Amino acid sequence: MIVVKIVCLILGLIVIPLCMGMLFFPLVGKNFRTPGAALIAGYIFMFTLLELIGIPVVLLAVYNGFTLFVNLFTPCILLTAAAGVILALYRKKQSGAYIYEMSRAAIRPDNTRKQISLEGKIVFGLFLILLGFQLYMAFTQASFDGDDAYYGAHAVAAQQLDTLYRVNPYTGRSAPLDVRHGLALFPIWEAYLGRMSGVHATIVSHTIVPLLLIPLTYILYYQIGKILLKKRKDLLPMFMVVIALWQIFGNISIYTPETFFLTRTWQGKSFAGSFVIPAVIWIFLCLFASDEEQEALDSFAILNEPEERKTGFWLLLACLNFAGGASSSLAVLLSCLMSVGFGVLFAVRKKRFGILVKAGFSCTAGAIYVLLYLCLTHGIIRL
Amino acid sequence: MYGIFMESLVIFKLYTGLKLLLILTALSWIYLLLKEKDKRVRILLVYAPILILALFFFPVSRKAFVAAGLDGETYYRILWTIPMGVITAYGACRIFAAHKRIGLVVTSALVILCGSYVYKSEYISKAENLYHIPDTVIKICDKITPENPNATVSAVMPPELIHFVRQYDAGIRMPYGREMLVARWDYYNAVYEAMEKPEVVDMETLLEATRADYCRYIVMAEGKKTDMSPEDAGLVLIETIDGYRIYEDPVTTQVMEQWLEYYENEEE
Description:
The structure holds two protein chains of two kinds.
Chain A: H1 2-21, H2 35-60, H3 65-93, H4 98-107, H5 118-140, E1 141-143, H6 148-161, H7 186-197, H8 201-228, H9 236-248, H10 257-263, H11 268-287, H12 289-295, H13 311-323, H14 329-350, H15 353-362, H16 364-377
Chain B: H1 2-16, H2 21-35, H3 39-57, H4 59-67, H5 84-95, H6 100-114, E1 124-126, H7 135-144, E2 153-156, H8 162-168, E3 172-173, H9 190-196, H10 203-212, E4 217-221, E5 236-241, E6 244-248, H11 250-267
Parallel strand pairs in B: 2-3, 2-4
Antiparallel strand pairs in B: 4-6, 5-6
Helix pairs in contact in B: 2-5, 5-6, 9-10
C-alpha cells in the first residue's frame, strides 16, 4: 500500500510534470531541451491548468467542488502529459529526437563533450551535500507557522469535506467564499496530490512537497547559472554552492524569500518567492540569449546559437504570469510587473518595440486574473 | 508622502535586518556595475534592482498597492523581485574567476558569517510524526472524533494546540481558532472571553457560552484554574492526554445526538 502511494506521488510530482514539459520542446532551441527545463516548464503548465480549471470551480461550485475539480483536472493533466510523451516519441523518428537530447543533457548538462574536472565534481558534490542536508531538515524538522492554520486547514477541508474555500478554516463553520485567497489554489493542489495518492493533505504539504520543491528550485537556479556562466561552466559548481549557502544563511529576517523557502516551503507564497519570480528572470535570460552571443563580448558573454527558436519562452512567460496565481495573487502582479519592466528595458536596449508588445501580450492572462481578483475583492462581482 | 516613504524605509530595514549579507550583495552589485559587459545581465541584475528599489520607495507605489486591495503588510514582497542570492553568487563567481578555490572558501565563509542560520529559529523543532504537528493533537483529535461520519463535533482547545487541530481533522469544529490569538485582528468571541481572558475560569460563564455554541468537548491544560471543579459544573472527564484534560458536556452531547437522529430520519 505504501509503495502504491509513493508511486502515485512520484507520478504526480515528477513524471506527469516532466512529460507535460516536453510539450515546450518544439518551440525552443536544442540547448534548452534538458530534463531540468522540461520539469520547470511542466510545473508552469500544470499550475496554468490548475488555475484555468480550478478558478471556475471555486467560484461556481458550492457543493462537492473538490470532487468536480479532481474529475476535470485529472484528465486534463493526463492528456497533456500524454501529448508530451507522444510528441517526444514522434520526434524520435525525426531528426530532433527529444528523448535522446534530454538523456544526453541529463548526463552532460551543458550539452558539450567537455569533461567536468575532478575539482568541479568535488565542489558539485559539496552542493549536493548541502541540498541533501536541506531535504533531511525538511523531512525531520517541523517548522511552526501560524498561516498553516489557514492554508493547511483549507487543504484538509478540501480533501475531507469536499469543499473549496467555503469553510472558515479556523473554526470549520460554513462561510461565504473567501475571495481574497480563493484564486490561489496551491493548497488545493496539495489536497489533490493527497486525494490521488491516498495520503493526508497535511503529510503531503509538510513532508512530501518540500522534498520536490526544494530540488525544483535548485534546478531553476542551475538553469540560471548555466546561462550566466555559459562560457565558464567550471564556475557553475561554485555558483550552486553559494546559492545553497545563501538559502541556508539567508534568514536575515522573517521576510526574506530564503526564510520562506526553507521554513514554509509548502506554502504558496514561498513558491512565489523561490520559483515564480526566479523563473521570470530565467525566461528573460533565455529569451535574449542569442543576440548577446552575436555581440561577442568577453569570456563571460553568453549563450546559445543564433536563430534559435524563442516562441516557447514567450508562451512559457504567458503561462507563468497566470500560473503564478496558484501561489498567491500578489505573485501574478509581481511577475507581470517584472515582465513588462524587463520588456521595457530590453525594448529600449535593443530598440525593438516588438519586445514590449510581446511582453505586454504575455501578461494578458495575468491581467485577467488581476482584474477578476479586483472585481471580487471590491465587490464588483458578487457570488 | 514623506511619511509613506519613511514607512517604506522601515519595511526595508526590517526586510534586510540591516545584516551584513546586504553588504555582500551590494559589493557584488557594484562589481557587476563596473565590470559586467553583457547587456542582458546588466539589465536583469544591475539596472532592474535599482528600478525596483526606486519603485519600492516611491510613495505612490505603496498607495497603489493598498488601493489594489492587496495587504499592506505584504508590501515587502516587492523586494523579492531583486534576486539578491543570484547577484551575490554570480558576482562572486566573476570576482574570483581566476582564483576559484580561494573564491569558494572566501565567499562561503562570508555568507556563513554575515548571514543567519535558518534552522536556528525557535519555531523549528524535531518532527514528532509525518504530519509535522504535535502527537498530543493527534491523540486528542482521535479521541473526540465521532464514529458516526455524519456527526459533527465542536471542541474548545487550548491556545497552544489551536493551530493544529483542523490541519489534522477538518471534521472537528472549534468555537474560535487562530483569529482570536492574533491580538491586532481584534476579534470578539464569547467562549474565548470566558476561557482565556480571566486568570481563573468562571465555569458557569464558560458553560453558558459553550452551550450557546454547541461545544461538546472542552480541552483544558491540567494547570488551568477554574472557580469550581469542571466535574462539579456538570462536565464529564473523558481522559487525560499528555497533560490535557478532555471534558465532555453531557447537555450539549444530548442536544447534538437529538439533532443527528432528526437529520438521519429526515434523510431516510
